[in-house]
Inverse folding.
């Protein structure tokens, strides 16, 4: 049985890229027992709007896509995310962080900061790593302490083999989450943002498990996050799906479509007189 999902954030109207993503996930659910589920990623209450949520349902229906119920709303699941975060905190794998973006930038630019070579990612410098939860203030974020994660597994030599089974075209194959790669690319990631009490990464892995997702279809712009998701699945003891990251549809300038580029929204294409069939074939053809 295949269980796929489409997980849009209701912060704008769906565009051609979303249509491709939803169609691809939906098309891979072929048999009667397969499921195609929708998750509304509305954690960011300032940017998410109910009018966009309604538009998502209307647009998908108009494309001829149907889905299984219930629809999952992340805004109704804060307590579940909190429980999982508490679990990671109780395992001793987190620390409260009071750094603002500016603090992090300043400390990375400080004269005594370690030299960062060109192209290297700017990682959290570890300012709050030794703070305990007794010192936590209301507005603090919670970060994963990656050194503690290594210790939790019994040291580098015992770090588990964490496989990512990727079925999508551009990254097909098995990838491994090595501690070195994780440390160099992600470091002490934020598990709970100060404003929402959770993060995209934590919510996604918890919800994919809750919904029984067997394969995650999404754009290749999120491929990198899969390394974080795979580690969190291991730490939380969650089932591991396969992933299918697909290419992105780009605008005339080669930029990936964003909700800010209104000319590619499905609404706009329908207003211009395109039929759903034409929109679907346009999405299939423009993919690069
Ligand atoms: N909510 C994300 C988006 O709209 C998708 C997240 C995911 O598929 O994991 O781009």
């Amino acid at each position: 049985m295949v269980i796929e999902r489409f997980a849009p954030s209701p912060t704008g109207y769906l565009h051609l890229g979303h249509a491709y993503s939803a169609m691809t996930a939906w098309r891979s659910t072929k048999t009667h027992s397969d499921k195609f589920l929708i998750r509304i990623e509305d954690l960011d209450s300032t940017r998410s709007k109910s009018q966009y949520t309604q538009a998502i349902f209307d647009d998908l229906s108009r494309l001829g896509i149907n889905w299984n119920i219930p629809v999952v709303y992340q805004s109704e699941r804060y307590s579940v995310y909190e429980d999982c975060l508490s679990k990671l905190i109780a395992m001793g794998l987190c620390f409260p962080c009071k750094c603002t973006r500016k603090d992090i930038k300043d400390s990375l630019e400080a004269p005594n900061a370690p030299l960062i070579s060109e192209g290297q990612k700017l990682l959290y410098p570890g300012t709050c790593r030794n703070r305990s939860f007794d010192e936590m203030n209301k507005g603090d974020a919670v970060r994963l302490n990656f050194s503690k994660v290594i210790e939790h597994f019994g040291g580098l030599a015992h770090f588990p083999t964490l496989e990512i089974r990727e079925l999508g075209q551009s990254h097909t194959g098995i990838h491994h989450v090595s501690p070195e790669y994780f440390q160099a690319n992600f470091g002490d990631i934020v598990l709970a943002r100060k404003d929402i009490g959770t993060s995209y990464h934590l919510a996604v892995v918890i919800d994919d498990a809750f919904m029984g997702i067997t394969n995650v279809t999404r754009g290749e712009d999120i491929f990198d996050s899969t390394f974080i998701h795979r580690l969190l699945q291991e730490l939380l003891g969650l089932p591991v799906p396969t992933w299918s990251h697909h290419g992105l549809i780009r605008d005339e300038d080669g930029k990936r479509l964003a909700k800010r580029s209104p000319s590619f929204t499905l609404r706009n294409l329908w207003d211009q007189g395109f039929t759903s069939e034409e929109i679907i074939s346009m999405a299939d053809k423009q993919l690069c």
Q: What stands out?
A: The longest strand covers residues 35-40.
